[in-house]
Amino acid sequence: MVVCVCPIAADVGVGVLKAGGNAVDAAIAVAFAEAVTWPEAGNIGGGGFMLVANGSMATFFDYRETAPALATKTMFADGKVDFRSHQSAGVPGTVRGMVLAHKRFGTKPWKDLLAPAVKLAAGFPVDAPLAKRINDVMKDPKTMNAEFKRIFGREWKAGDTLKQLELAKTLAGIADHGANWFYTGPPAEQLEAEMKAGGGLIRKADLAAYEAKERKPLIGTYRGYEIVAAPPPSSGGTAILQSLNMLEQFDPKKHPRHSPETVHLLAEVQRRAFRDRAEFLGDPDFTKIPAHLTSKDHAKKLAATIDLAKATKSESLAGAIPIAESGGDTTHFSIVDKNGLCVSNTYTLEMNFGSRIVVRGAGFILNNEMTDFNPIPGTTTRTGKIGTNANLVAPGKRMLSSMTPTIVRKDGKPYLVTGSPGGRTIINTVLCVLVNTLDYDMTATEAVDAPRQHHQWFPDRMSLEKGPKDLVEKLKAMGHAVTEARQGDAHTIRIDPKTVLFQGAADMRLNGKASGY
Ligand code: GLY
Q: What does the alpha-carbon distance between residue 229 and residue 240 come to, in Å, rounded to a whole number?
């Protein structure tokens, strides 16, 4: 089964499974297909994380972008670097990430896995949601380069054909010659030329030096389930394990899921996990990440500070972080094959359509991931800017991510595969899906459809999807500031422990597809 945001790509993945490929083969084909058919986040010009698990095996492919050698600690400090600019792009990681995953687990020829993407790039029918999303982006033409306008700049309607001929050539080159061709061949020349023309920082040497990394996932437990989670430079796995460890000190099920008591408890847990995220998390190759963050003891201490009737002021948790005063569009897919091999993959261009810069001649959209670094050294604000050392810009460093691909196992068998887009809200979207399934025993669809909630420490405010009447008033009476906001789509697979049937939930918030056989 494949569940993802883009129906065409979901069917590409199932085609690979039906042809005898495994979940990683399917994931590679889906990732390249979405680089064509979901151009707002699917990519070869961005980066991401792939979590793979089966039985007692689990591993993690980190293909997060890196800062180029010319990047500096204070480049975003005076606010002069635009969020959608050549300078906001990090060195892309997706192509090397897919090659690494293929080397470790692939069973189908590399070229076969790229073939659907090459074909789609020559032209595919746009559906209504994609037409709307491109039309929305084109309303702000100042934020994009001329090549982006040439490819996407018209009024789209469902059924129109989107052709990306330069991208087709680049994908065909990757299919024929592999990752080195992309990182040292013509696309590297084209990317450097694009950067020099637009005042960007990435050079051929940055591309040649880029490495995807295989890392050990974080493994935690929650009420008898095993949680396989994303390690740094994702902040997601650490925050999820911390949150679940805190929740284990309580019994959320004492109250209905969307009662003020449970929503309050989750917000308090989220607030505390995000406070530690701000102080400690960054690229583990540059920053020492304290081991205690995911320990049960640390969670016990944090849980003891939660008042079940009253909101904590975020400022009171600041401790060593001096307080002076995200968006993010990304996409996630979940895959499980007939042998129980699970892939949870989240990848991104950062904001929707990334930097909105198409590399001339190479046809791919560049990320604006550099905006995930802390912008102003030393300045952490009440509005949510973070300035701690762990995630300051440095050449070659990976920017901290909130992407949280997650796999849950029970007694060594896969139980749940999930993840989401949505900047910092990703972590709490995943937490909601976990609590809904693990504590409240919801099916995949119920867990994904249920209203979600988010608290990220600063701003000191809870955001909620529309829930029961009176909930907001009751939360305000407990001392919470509350706003209403939609959270990201969580394309999820749950394996019913009794029937062993796969429940695929394509999120109703977008028209994705659960495709299986
Ligand atoms: N660009 C979204 C994230 O990595 O958190």
A: 8
